[in-house]
Design brief:
The chain is built from two helices and five strands; from the N terminus they run ββαβββα. By secondary structure, it is of the alpha+beta class. It has a single domain, classed as 2-Layer Sandwich (Beta-Lactamase). It has a five-stranded antiparallel beta sheet with strand order 2-1-5-4-3, sandwiched between helices. Strand 4 (about 70-75) and strand 5 (about 80-85) form a beta hairpin. It is globular and about 40 Å long. This is Trafficking protein particle complex subunit.
Length: about 120
C-alpha cells in the first residue's frame, strides 16, 4: 500500500497540515495553488453529489479513483476536511482516516487554547 500525500483543511478552507511521502511527478504549480485547487475540488464534489442525489439528506463523498491514485476523503462534523491520496489498491483507509481524526481530536483536547497553537504548513 502506498500513501502519496495527506491534506488537512480547517472549516475555513485553510490547510493546517500537509505531508507528502511519495510523489513521482513534480508539481507544475505552487503549493498555494495546489491547496486552493484541492479545497475547491472538495467543495465542488460535495455540491455535485448533493445536486445529483436521488435521495433526500446529506450526501457524503468518500472517495474518487483514477487509474493511478485514489483520493480518500473524510469531512468531520466540525468541518475539518481530510484527504489521503493512496494507490488505488490500498485497503483499510477509512479506518486509518478515522484514527487520524481521533488523534487530532485528542491533541485538540489537550491544547485548551487551540486558536493560539501555531501549526505550520510543512512539506516533507
Amino acid at each position: 500500500m502506498a500513501i502519496f500525500n495527506f491534506y488537512l483543511f480547517n472549516r475555513d478552507g485553510t490547510c493546517v497540515l500537509y505531508r507528502e511521502w511519495r510523489r513521482e511527478k513534480k508539481a507544475v504549480m505552487s503549493m498555494e495553488q495546489e491547496l486552493k485547487l484541492m479545497y475547491g475540488m472538495l467543495l465542488s464534489l460535495r455540491s455535485f453529489a448533493l445536486k445529483l442525489s436521488t435521495a433526500a439528506g446529506i450526501q457524503q463523498v468518500n472517495s474518487f479513483e483514477t487509474s493511478q491514485y485514489k483520493l480518500n476523503y473524510l469531512e468531520t462534523p466540525t468541518g475539518l476536511k481530510m484527504v489521503l491520496n493512496t494507490d488505488p489498491n490500498a485497503t483499510g483507509i477509512p479506518e486509518l482516516m478515522r484514527s487520524i481524526y481521533q488523534a487530532y481530536v485528542d491533541a485538540f483536547k489537550s491544547t485548551r487554547h487551540f486558536d493560539t497553537l501555531n501549526i505550520t504548513l510543512r512539506k516533507q
